[in-house]
Amino acid sequence: MKEELQKRIVKGPGGVDIEVEPLRDYYCEAPPTVMPAAYSKIVEDLFNWARSESIWILGFGTGCGAIEMRPLMTPRFDAYRYGIQWRPTPRQANLFVISGYLSVKTLKRAIRSYEQMQNPKYVVGLGSCTINGGMYWDSYNTIKRLDDYLPVDLYITGCMPRPEALLQGFMDLKKLIRAGNAEGANQYAENFKWYKDNQKKVIKDWDMPDYSW
Amino acid sequence: MAFEWIQIPYALLTLFIVVNYGFILNALIAKIGARVGRRHGIPIWQNYLDLIKNYSIRSSITHGVMFYLGPVFRLSGGVGLLLFVPTIYSSVMFSNLSFAGDLILALYFVFFGTLGMALGAGESGHPFAAIGVSRGLAQVTASELPFALAVFSVALQYQTLSVTDIVAAQQGSYLNWTLFTNPIAVAAAMLSFLGAMMRPPFDVVLAPQEIPIGPPTEYHSSYLALMQTNRAIFPIAKMVVYMNLFFGGAISWPIFFLKIFLIYMVSVLVGVVFPRFHVEHSIRWFLVWAVPLGIIAIMVV
Predict the structure, then answer these.
(1) Which of A118, A193, B74, B131 is buried deepest, with most CB atoms within 10 A?
(2) In this complex, which of A50, A78, A85 lies closest to B40 when CB atoms are compared?
(3) Domains along chain A?
Protein backbone atom coordinates (compact mmCIF):
# COMPACT_ATOMS: atom_id res chain seq x y z
CA MET A 1 0.00 0.00 0.00
CA LYS A 2 1.20 3.50 -0.79
CA GLU A 3 2.85 5.38 2.06
CA GLU A 4 0.39 8.28 1.87
CA LEU A 5 -2.53 5.89 2.45
CA GLN A 6 -1.09 4.34 5.61
CA LYS A 7 -2.26 5.14 9.11
CA ARG A 8 0.00 7.72 10.70
CA ILE A 9 0.23 10.38 13.38
CA VAL A 10 0.54 14.02 12.31
CA LYS A 11 1.75 16.86 14.55
CA GLY A 12 -0.94 19.51 14.60
CA PRO A 13 -0.60 23.17 15.61
CA GLY A 14 0.27 23.57 19.30
CA GLY A 15 1.95 20.15 19.39
CA VAL A 16 -1.29 18.15 19.30
CA ASP A 17 -0.99 14.63 17.92
CA ILE A 18 -3.63 13.90 15.27
CA GLU A 19 -4.17 10.34 14.12
CA VAL A 20 -4.86 10.15 10.37
CA GLU A 21 -6.21 7.06 8.66
CA PRO A 22 -6.61 8.15 5.02
CA LEU A 23 -8.72 5.27 3.76
CA ARG A 24 -11.26 5.87 6.55
CA ASP A 25 -11.01 9.66 6.84
CA TYR A 26 -10.87 10.71 3.20
CA TYR A 27 -13.03 8.05 1.57
CA CYS A 28 -16.49 6.68 2.18
CA GLU A 29 -16.34 3.00 3.01
CA ALA A 30 -20.00 2.16 2.56
CA PRO A 31 -20.68 -0.47 -0.13
CA PRO A 32 -23.10 0.38 -2.95
CA THR A 33 -26.77 -0.40 -2.45
CA VAL A 34 -29.45 -1.56 -4.86
CA MET A 35 -31.41 1.49 -6.03
CA PRO A 36 -35.07 0.75 -6.74
CA ALA A 37 -36.72 1.98 -9.89
CA ALA A 38 -39.31 4.74 -9.78
CA TYR A 39 -42.47 3.76 -7.91
CA SER A 40 -44.81 4.12 -10.85
CA LYS A 41 -44.26 2.11 -14.02
CA ILE A 42 -45.29 4.96 -16.31
CA VAL A 43 -42.67 7.23 -14.74
CA GLU A 44 -39.98 4.56 -14.97
CA ASP A 45 -40.87 3.97 -18.62
CA LEU A 46 -40.53 7.69 -19.29
CA PHE A 47 -37.19 7.73 -17.49
CA ASN A 48 -35.94 4.70 -19.41
CA TRP A 49 -36.95 6.32 -22.66
CA ALA A 50 -35.05 9.50 -21.75
CA ARG A 51 -32.04 7.47 -20.61
CA SER A 52 -31.97 5.53 -23.86
CA GLU A 53 -32.16 8.69 -25.95
CA SER A 54 -29.50 10.53 -23.98
CA ILE A 55 -26.45 8.30 -23.67
CA TRP A 56 -23.38 10.03 -22.29
CA ILE A 57 -20.20 8.06 -22.85
CA LEU A 58 -17.26 8.40 -20.53
CA GLY A 59 -14.34 9.64 -22.61
CA PHE A 60 -11.90 6.99 -21.42
CA GLY A 61 -10.16 4.78 -23.98
CA THR A 62 -8.67 1.68 -22.41
CA GLY A 63 -7.16 -0.15 -25.38
CA CYS A 64 -6.66 0.09 -29.12
CA GLY A 65 -10.45 0.01 -29.65
CA ALA A 66 -10.64 3.61 -28.49
CA ILE A 67 -9.50 4.62 -31.96
CA GLU A 68 -12.78 3.30 -33.38
CA MET A 69 -14.77 5.65 -31.15
CA ARG A 70 -13.20 8.84 -32.49
CA PRO A 71 -14.74 8.56 -35.98
CA LEU A 72 -18.16 8.50 -34.32
CA MET A 73 -17.74 12.18 -33.46
CA THR A 74 -16.79 13.12 -37.01
CA PRO A 75 -19.08 14.14 -39.89
CA ARG A 76 -18.90 10.69 -41.45
CA PHE A 77 -20.62 8.82 -38.62
CA ASP A 78 -21.83 11.61 -36.30
CA ALA A 79 -23.24 9.75 -33.28
CA TYR A 80 -24.58 13.00 -31.83
CA ARG A 81 -27.70 12.75 -33.99
CA TYR A 82 -28.68 9.64 -31.99
CA GLY A 83 -28.37 11.47 -28.67
CA ILE A 84 -24.95 9.98 -27.96
CA GLN A 85 -22.43 12.38 -26.47
CA TRP A 86 -19.04 12.13 -24.80
CA ARG A 87 -18.58 13.48 -21.29
CA PRO A 88 -15.14 14.09 -19.82
CA THR A 89 -15.99 13.16 -16.23
CA PRO A 90 -17.34 9.87 -14.80
CA ARG A 91 -19.80 11.76 -12.60
CA GLN A 92 -21.82 12.89 -15.60
CA ALA A 93 -21.36 9.87 -17.84
CA ASN A 94 -23.64 6.85 -17.80
CA LEU A 95 -22.06 4.59 -20.41
CA PHE A 96 -18.58 3.16 -19.98
CA VAL A 97 -17.15 1.69 -23.17
CA ILE A 98 -14.29 -0.68 -22.36
CA SER A 99 -12.57 -0.30 -25.68
CA GLY A 100 -10.42 -3.35 -26.29
CA TYR A 101 -7.95 -5.19 -24.12
CA LEU A 102 -7.73 -4.20 -20.49
CA SER A 103 -4.37 -4.50 -18.78
CA VAL A 104 -4.44 -5.12 -15.05
CA LYS A 105 -3.02 -1.67 -14.45
CA THR A 106 -5.82 -0.06 -16.47
CA LEU A 107 -8.43 -2.30 -14.85
CA LYS A 108 -7.72 -0.55 -11.56
CA ARG A 109 -8.48 2.85 -13.12
CA ALA A 110 -11.48 1.42 -14.98
CA ILE A 111 -12.96 0.13 -11.69
CA ARG A 112 -12.49 3.48 -9.98
CA SER A 113 -14.03 5.33 -12.92
CA TYR A 114 -16.94 2.91 -13.11
CA GLU A 115 -17.67 3.24 -9.42
CA GLN A 116 -17.73 7.02 -9.61
CA MET A 117 -20.48 6.93 -12.23
CA GLN A 118 -24.03 7.29 -10.92
CA ASN A 119 -26.73 4.64 -10.98
CA PRO A 120 -28.03 3.67 -13.58
CA LYS A 121 -24.85 3.07 -15.55
CA TYR A 122 -24.03 0.80 -18.43
CA VAL A 123 -20.91 -1.01 -19.62
CA VAL A 124 -20.27 -1.97 -23.22
CA GLY A 125 -17.39 -4.32 -24.02
CA LEU A 126 -15.86 -3.44 -27.37
CA GLY A 127 -13.90 -6.02 -29.34
CA SER A 128 -13.07 -9.66 -28.79
CA CYS A 129 -10.53 -8.88 -26.06
CA THR A 130 -13.30 -8.06 -23.61
CA ILE A 131 -15.07 -11.37 -24.27
CA ASN A 132 -12.30 -13.95 -24.03
CA GLY A 133 -9.01 -12.08 -24.17
CA GLY A 134 -8.93 -12.07 -27.97
CA MET A 135 -5.44 -12.03 -29.38
CA TYR A 136 -4.13 -11.40 -25.87
CA TRP A 137 -5.68 -14.63 -24.57
CA ASP A 138 -2.32 -15.87 -23.20
CA SER A 139 -0.96 -12.54 -22.00
CA TYR A 140 0.32 -12.34 -18.45
CA ASN A 141 -0.84 -8.77 -18.21
CA THR A 142 -4.42 -8.48 -19.44
CA ILE A 143 -7.73 -9.75 -18.13
CA LYS A 144 -9.61 -12.32 -20.19
CA ARG A 145 -13.30 -11.93 -19.37
CA LEU A 146 -14.48 -8.43 -18.62
CA ASP A 147 -17.73 -9.78 -17.20
CA ASP A 148 -15.87 -11.13 -14.17
CA TYR A 149 -14.84 -7.66 -13.06
CA LEU A 150 -17.58 -5.28 -14.19
CA PRO A 151 -21.22 -6.04 -15.09
CA VAL A 152 -21.32 -5.86 -18.88
CA ASP A 153 -24.61 -5.03 -20.60
CA LEU A 154 -23.56 -5.57 -24.18
CA TYR A 155 -20.62 -6.84 -26.23
CA ILE A 156 -19.66 -5.58 -29.67
CA THR A 157 -17.54 -8.28 -31.26
CA GLY A 158 -14.78 -7.85 -33.78
CA CYS A 159 -11.12 -7.08 -33.93
CA MET A 160 -11.64 -4.26 -34.47
CA PRO A 161 -15.38 -3.63 -34.88
CA ARG A 162 -15.99 -0.86 -37.39
CA PRO A 163 -17.67 2.39 -36.29
CA GLU A 164 -20.87 1.18 -38.00
CA ALA A 165 -20.81 -1.87 -35.72
CA LEU A 166 -20.43 0.43 -32.74
CA LEU A 167 -23.41 2.50 -33.82
CA GLN A 168 -25.45 -0.68 -34.24
CA GLY A 169 -24.32 -1.76 -30.78
CA PHE A 170 -25.47 1.53 -29.27
CA MET A 171 -28.85 1.09 -30.96
CA ASP A 172 -29.15 -2.36 -29.36
CA LEU A 173 -28.15 -0.88 -26.01
CA LYS A 174 -30.95 1.66 -26.43
CA LYS A 175 -33.43 -1.20 -26.81
CA LEU A 176 -32.07 -2.85 -23.66
CA ILE A 177 -32.36 0.38 -21.68
CA ARG A 178 -35.86 1.11 -22.93
CA ALA A 179 -36.99 -2.38 -21.94
CA GLY A 180 -35.56 -1.76 -18.47
CA ASN A 181 -33.06 -4.62 -18.79
CA ALA A 182 -29.86 -2.60 -18.37
CA GLU A 183 -29.56 -2.80 -14.58
CA GLY A 184 -25.81 -3.34 -14.38
CA ALA A 185 -25.33 -0.96 -11.47
CA ASN A 186 -27.82 -2.86 -9.30
CA GLN A 187 -26.28 -6.16 -10.37
CA TYR A 188 -22.90 -4.84 -9.27
CA ALA A 189 -24.32 -3.82 -5.90
CA GLU A 190 -26.06 -7.20 -5.44
CA ASN A 191 -22.97 -9.26 -6.22
CA PHE A 192 -20.54 -6.75 -4.80
CA LYS A 193 -18.47 -9.31 -2.88
CA TRP A 194 -18.06 -11.58 -5.89
CA TYR A 195 -16.90 -8.72 -8.10
CA LYS A 196 -14.48 -7.45 -5.44
CA ASP A 197 -12.98 -10.91 -4.92
CA ASN A 198 -12.41 -11.29 -8.65
CA GLN A 199 -10.91 -7.83 -8.91
CA LYS A 200 -8.58 -8.37 -5.96
CA LYS A 201 -7.47 -11.70 -7.39
CA VAL A 202 -5.79 -9.99 -10.35
CA ILE A 203 -4.91 -6.60 -8.84
CA LYS A 204 -2.06 -7.43 -6.49
CA ASP A 205 -1.27 -3.91 -5.28
CA TRP A 206 -4.76 -3.01 -4.09
CA ASP A 207 -4.31 0.45 -2.55
CA MET A 208 -7.69 2.08 -2.81
CA PRO A 209 -10.96 1.98 -0.92
CA ASP A 210 -13.26 -0.95 -1.69
CA TYR A 211 -15.77 1.35 -3.30
CA SER A 212 -14.95 4.79 -4.73
CA TRP A 213 -17.98 6.98 -4.19
CA MET B 1 -44.35 50.56 -11.07
CA ALA B 2 -46.23 49.57 -7.92
CA PHE B 3 -46.24 45.90 -7.00
CA GLU B 4 -49.37 43.91 -7.77
CA TRP B 5 -49.91 40.23 -6.94
CA ILE B 6 -50.86 39.46 -10.53
CA GLN B 7 -47.27 40.17 -11.52
CA ILE B 8 -46.14 36.88 -9.98
CA PRO B 9 -48.06 34.56 -12.35
CA TYR B 10 -47.12 36.90 -15.22
CA ALA B 11 -43.45 36.61 -14.28
CA LEU B 12 -43.75 32.81 -14.06
CA LEU B 13 -45.29 32.79 -17.53
CA THR B 14 -42.32 34.78 -18.82
CA LEU B 15 -40.01 32.29 -17.17
CA PHE B 16 -41.85 29.35 -18.76
CA ILE B 17 -41.65 30.86 -22.25
CA VAL B 18 -37.98 31.75 -21.84
CA VAL B 19 -36.99 28.30 -20.50
CA ASN B 20 -38.56 26.54 -23.47
CA TYR B 21 -37.20 29.05 -25.95
CA GLY B 22 -33.77 28.67 -24.32
CA PHE B 23 -33.76 24.87 -24.64
CA ILE B 24 -34.79 24.96 -28.27
CA LEU B 25 -32.46 27.84 -29.10
CA ASN B 26 -29.48 26.10 -27.46
CA ALA B 27 -30.15 22.96 -29.50
CA LEU B 28 -30.58 25.02 -32.65
CA ILE B 29 -27.29 26.79 -32.02
CA ALA B 30 -25.60 23.42 -31.42
CA LYS B 31 -27.06 22.23 -34.71
CA ILE B 32 -25.78 25.31 -36.52
CA GLY B 33 -22.34 24.73 -35.00
CA ALA B 34 -22.50 21.09 -36.12
CA ARG B 35 -23.51 22.06 -39.67
CA VAL B 36 -20.44 24.26 -39.87
CA GLY B 37 -18.44 21.11 -39.10
CA ARG B 38 -20.51 19.26 -41.73
CA ARG B 39 -22.23 17.16 -39.10
CA HIS B 40 -25.94 16.64 -38.69
CA GLY B 41 -25.95 17.69 -35.04
CA ILE B 42 -28.14 16.82 -32.09
CA PRO B 43 -31.95 16.52 -32.43
CA ILE B 44 -33.75 19.77 -31.63
CA TRP B 45 -35.41 18.21 -28.53
CA GLN B 46 -32.18 16.70 -27.18
CA ASN B 47 -31.89 19.19 -24.31
CA TYR B 48 -35.26 18.13 -22.89
CA LEU B 49 -34.18 14.48 -23.00
CA ASP B 50 -30.89 15.26 -21.27
CA LEU B 51 -32.81 17.14 -18.60
CA ILE B 52 -35.24 14.28 -17.92
CA LYS B 53 -32.34 11.82 -17.97
CA ASN B 54 -30.39 13.83 -15.42
CA TYR B 55 -33.40 14.14 -13.11
CA SER B 56 -33.95 10.39 -13.41
CA ILE B 57 -30.47 9.42 -12.18
CA ARG B 58 -31.15 7.37 -9.06
CA SER B 59 -28.09 8.09 -6.96
CA SER B 60 -26.41 11.36 -6.19
CA ILE B 61 -23.66 12.22 -3.77
CA THR B 62 -22.89 15.47 -2.04
CA HIS B 63 -19.75 17.21 -0.87
CA GLY B 64 -21.40 19.61 1.60
CA VAL B 65 -23.88 22.45 1.90
CA MET B 66 -22.25 24.80 -0.61
CA PHE B 67 -22.15 21.96 -3.12
CA TYR B 68 -25.95 21.93 -2.92
CA LEU B 69 -26.23 25.69 -3.06
CA GLY B 70 -23.86 26.23 -6.01
CA PRO B 71 -26.36 25.26 -8.74
CA VAL B 72 -29.17 26.94 -6.78
CA PHE B 73 -27.23 30.23 -6.72
CA ARG B 74 -26.45 29.86 -10.38
CA LEU B 75 -30.08 29.30 -11.27
CA SER B 76 -31.27 32.16 -9.08
CA GLY B 77 -28.71 34.39 -10.84
CA GLY B 78 -30.30 33.55 -14.19
CA VAL B 79 -33.90 33.77 -12.99
CA GLY B 80 -33.24 36.98 -11.04
CA LEU B 81 -31.63 38.64 -14.02
CA LEU B 82 -34.60 37.68 -16.18
CA LEU B 83 -37.29 38.75 -13.74
CA PHE B 84 -35.95 42.18 -12.82
CA VAL B 85 -35.71 43.61 -16.34
CA PRO B 86 -38.70 44.08 -18.64
CA THR B 87 -38.91 41.32 -21.25
CA ILE B 88 -41.48 42.89 -23.56
CA TYR B 89 -41.64 46.68 -23.63
CA SER B 90 -45.01 48.37 -23.03
CA SER B 91 -46.62 45.06 -22.06
CA VAL B 92 -48.09 44.97 -18.56
CA MET B 93 -47.88 41.18 -18.55
CA PHE B 94 -44.22 40.87 -19.42
CA SER B 95 -42.67 43.89 -17.76
CA ASN B 96 -41.99 41.53 -14.86
CA LEU B 97 -40.72 43.08 -11.64
CA SER B 98 -38.76 45.93 -13.21
CA PHE B 99 -38.35 49.11 -11.18
CA ALA B 100 -36.56 52.46 -11.33
CA GLY B 101 -33.00 51.30 -10.55
CA ASP B 102 -33.10 47.83 -12.12
CA LEU B 103 -30.02 48.44 -14.28
CA ILE B 104 -27.71 48.32 -11.26
CA LEU B 105 -29.42 45.18 -9.95
CA ALA B 106 -29.01 43.52 -13.37
CA LEU B 107 -25.28 44.24 -13.27
CA TYR B 108 -25.07 42.44 -9.92
CA PHE B 109 -27.13 39.47 -11.08
CA VAL B 110 -24.84 38.92 -14.07
CA PHE B 111 -22.01 38.18 -11.64
CA PHE B 112 -24.06 36.43 -8.96
CA GLY B 113 -24.28 33.00 -10.60
CA THR B 114 -20.56 32.84 -11.29
CA LEU B 115 -19.78 33.56 -7.66
CA GLY B 116 -22.26 30.94 -6.41
CA MET B 117 -20.76 28.43 -8.78
CA ALA B 118 -17.28 29.29 -7.53
CA LEU B 119 -18.31 28.50 -3.94
CA GLY B 120 -20.08 25.27 -4.90
CA ALA B 121 -17.38 23.98 -7.22
CA GLY B 122 -14.77 24.94 -4.63
CA GLU B 123 -16.40 22.69 -2.06
CA SER B 124 -16.44 19.73 -4.44
CA GLY B 125 -12.70 19.58 -3.70
CA HIS B 126 -11.76 18.58 -7.22
CA PRO B 127 -8.55 20.28 -8.42
CA PHE B 128 -9.91 20.71 -11.95
CA ALA B 129 -12.96 22.48 -10.54
CA ALA B 130 -10.70 24.91 -8.69
CA ILE B 131 -8.65 25.57 -11.85
CA GLY B 132 -11.82 26.10 -13.86
CA VAL B 133 -13.29 28.46 -11.28
CA SER B 134 -10.16 30.61 -11.08
CA ARG B 135 -10.10 30.83 -14.87
CA GLY B 136 -13.80 31.61 -15.00
CA LEU B 137 -13.68 34.36 -12.40
CA ALA B 138 -10.62 35.96 -14.02
CA GLN B 139 -12.22 35.92 -17.45
CA VAL B 140 -15.67 37.06 -16.32
CA THR B 141 -14.10 39.94 -14.39
CA ALA B 142 -12.15 41.06 -17.46
CA SER B 143 -15.16 40.76 -19.76
CA GLU B 144 -17.52 42.51 -17.31
CA LEU B 145 -15.33 45.60 -17.28
CA PRO B 146 -16.15 46.86 -20.80
CA PHE B 147 -19.80 45.87 -20.27
CA ALA B 148 -20.02 47.90 -17.08
CA LEU B 149 -18.38 50.88 -18.82
CA ALA B 150 -20.83 50.59 -21.71
CA VAL B 151 -23.77 50.39 -19.29
CA PHE B 152 -22.59 53.54 -17.48
CA SER B 153 -22.20 55.27 -20.82
CA VAL B 154 -25.77 54.37 -21.77
CA ALA B 155 -27.06 55.41 -18.33
CA LEU B 156 -25.31 58.78 -18.73
CA GLN B 157 -26.64 59.16 -22.25
CA TYR B 158 -30.28 58.65 -21.23
CA GLN B 159 -29.84 60.11 -17.70
CA THR B 160 -31.65 57.17 -16.09
CA LEU B 161 -30.99 53.85 -14.36
CA SER B 162 -34.32 52.31 -15.35
CA VAL B 163 -34.21 49.79 -18.19
CA THR B 164 -37.83 50.58 -19.08
CA ASP B 165 -36.98 54.28 -19.56
CA ILE B 166 -33.96 53.38 -21.69
CA VAL B 167 -36.11 51.19 -23.94
CA ALA B 168 -38.76 53.93 -24.11
CA ALA B 169 -36.14 56.43 -25.31
CA GLN B 170 -35.21 54.13 -28.21
CA GLN B 171 -38.71 53.72 -29.63
CA GLY B 172 -39.95 55.33 -32.84
CA SER B 173 -37.39 54.34 -35.43
CA TYR B 174 -34.48 51.92 -35.53
CA LEU B 175 -32.28 55.00 -35.89
CA ASN B 176 -33.14 55.77 -32.26
CA TRP B 177 -31.51 52.54 -31.06
CA THR B 178 -28.42 52.92 -28.90
CA LEU B 179 -26.66 50.98 -31.65
CA PHE B 180 -26.88 54.14 -33.79
CA THR B 181 -26.94 56.87 -31.15
CA ASN B 182 -23.98 55.53 -29.14
CA PRO B 183 -22.15 53.01 -31.36
CA ILE B 184 -18.91 52.99 -29.37
CA ALA B 185 -20.65 51.81 -26.19
CA VAL B 186 -22.42 49.08 -28.16
CA ALA B 187 -19.12 47.98 -29.70
CA ALA B 188 -17.52 47.69 -26.25
CA ALA B 189 -20.53 45.79 -24.90
CA MET B 190 -20.65 43.39 -27.85
CA LEU B 191 -16.95 42.55 -27.41
CA SER B 192 -17.69 41.84 -23.75
CA PHE B 193 -20.71 39.78 -24.88
CA LEU B 194 -18.40 37.34 -26.67
CA GLY B 195 -16.68 36.63 -23.37
CA ALA B 196 -19.90 36.08 -21.45
CA MET B 197 -21.44 33.44 -23.73
CA MET B 198 -19.10 30.52 -22.94
CA ARG B 199 -18.46 29.94 -26.62
CA PRO B 200 -15.11 29.83 -28.40
CA PRO B 201 -12.73 31.65 -28.39
CA PHE B 202 -13.57 32.27 -24.72
CA ASP B 203 -14.57 28.80 -23.52
CA VAL B 204 -11.32 27.67 -21.93
CA VAL B 205 -13.15 27.74 -18.59
CA LEU B 206 -14.87 24.47 -19.45
CA ALA B 207 -12.03 22.96 -21.58
CA PRO B 208 -13.38 19.39 -21.67
CA GLN B 209 -10.16 17.79 -22.87
CA GLU B 210 -7.73 19.59 -20.63
CA ILE B 211 -9.45 20.09 -17.26
CA PRO B 212 -12.42 17.73 -17.58
CA ILE B 213 -15.18 20.32 -17.95
CA GLY B 214 -13.82 22.59 -15.17
CA PRO B 215 -16.20 23.89 -12.47
CA PRO B 216 -18.95 21.27 -12.96
CA THR B 217 -16.50 18.31 -12.89
CA GLU B 218 -18.14 16.84 -9.78
CA TYR B 219 -21.71 17.88 -10.60
CA HIS B 220 -24.11 15.16 -11.72
CA SER B 221 -27.77 14.09 -11.70
CA SER B 222 -30.17 16.76 -10.35
CA TYR B 223 -27.38 19.25 -9.65
CA LEU B 224 -26.38 19.10 -13.28
CA ALA B 225 -30.00 19.30 -14.37
CA LEU B 226 -30.40 22.55 -12.41
CA MET B 227 -27.31 23.92 -14.12
CA GLN B 228 -28.63 22.84 -17.52
CA THR B 229 -31.85 24.71 -16.83
CA ASN B 230 -29.77 27.74 -16.01
CA ARG B 231 -27.85 27.33 -19.25
CA ALA B 232 -31.15 27.79 -21.03
CA ILE B 233 -32.23 30.81 -18.96
CA PHE B 234 -29.06 32.77 -18.28
CA PRO B 235 -27.87 33.47 -21.86
CA ILE B 236 -31.40 34.57 -22.79
CA ALA B 237 -31.65 36.77 -19.68
CA LYS B 238 -28.31 38.33 -20.49
CA MET B 239 -29.35 38.93 -24.08
CA VAL B 240 -32.60 40.51 -22.88
CA VAL B 241 -30.48 43.11 -21.07
CA TYR B 242 -28.44 43.69 -24.24
CA MET B 243 -31.54 43.88 -26.38
CA ASN B 244 -33.15 46.41 -24.05
CA LEU B 245 -30.07 48.58 -23.66
CA PHE B 246 -28.68 48.58 -27.18
CA PHE B 247 -31.13 47.21 -29.72
CA GLY B 248 -34.40 48.96 -28.94
CA GLY B 249 -36.04 46.23 -26.85
CA ALA B 250 -38.94 44.15 -28.12
CA ILE B 251 -42.61 45.08 -28.31
CA SER B 252 -43.88 41.54 -28.97
CA TRP B 253 -42.73 37.93 -28.59
CA PRO B 254 -41.92 37.32 -32.31
CA ILE B 255 -39.63 40.38 -32.33
CA PHE B 256 -38.17 39.18 -29.05
CA PHE B 257 -37.39 35.71 -30.47
CA LEU B 258 -35.86 37.19 -33.62
CA LYS B 259 -33.69 39.76 -31.88
CA ILE B 260 -32.43 37.28 -29.27
CA PHE B 261 -31.57 34.80 -32.01
CA LEU B 262 -29.66 37.42 -33.99
CA ILE B 263 -27.76 38.64 -30.93
CA TYR B 264 -26.86 35.04 -30.07
CA MET B 265 -25.66 34.50 -33.65
CA VAL B 266 -23.00 37.19 -33.15
CA SER B 267 -21.19 35.01 -30.62
CA VAL B 268 -21.88 31.86 -32.65
CA LEU B 269 -20.40 33.34 -35.83
CA VAL B 270 -17.28 34.40 -33.94
CA GLY B 271 -17.19 31.07 -32.16
CA VAL B 272 -17.19 28.80 -35.19
CA VAL B 273 -14.45 30.81 -36.88
CA PHE B 274 -11.90 31.39 -34.14
CA PRO B 275 -10.04 28.83 -32.01
CA ARG B 276 -9.78 28.96 -28.26
CA PHE B 277 -7.91 31.62 -26.29
CA HIS B 278 -5.86 30.95 -23.18
CA VAL B 279 -7.21 32.78 -20.16
CA GLU B 280 -4.28 35.18 -20.02
CA HIS B 281 -4.74 35.89 -23.74
CA SER B 282 -8.43 36.55 -23.38
CA ILE B 283 -7.90 38.88 -20.40
CA ARG B 284 -5.28 40.80 -22.37
CA TRP B 285 -7.64 40.89 -25.35
CA PHE B 286 -10.45 42.41 -23.27
CA LEU B 287 -8.15 44.93 -21.63
CA VAL B 288 -6.50 45.98 -24.92
CA TRP B 289 -9.48 46.03 -27.29
CA ALA B 290 -12.69 46.35 -25.29
CA VAL B 291 -11.89 48.45 -22.22
CA PRO B 292 -10.46 51.46 -24.17
CA LEU B 293 -13.65 51.45 -26.28
CA GLY B 294 -15.70 51.55 -23.08
CA ILE B 295 -13.67 54.45 -21.70
CA ILE B 296 -14.04 56.38 -24.98
CA ALA B 297 -17.78 55.68 -24.90
CA ILE B 298 -18.03 57.28 -21.46
CA MET B 299 -15.92 60.28 -22.51
CA VAL B 300 -17.84 61.11 -25.68
CA VAL B 301 -21.29 60.89 -24.09
Answers:
(1) B74
(2) A78
(3) 1-29 (no CATH), 37-201 (3.40.50.12280)
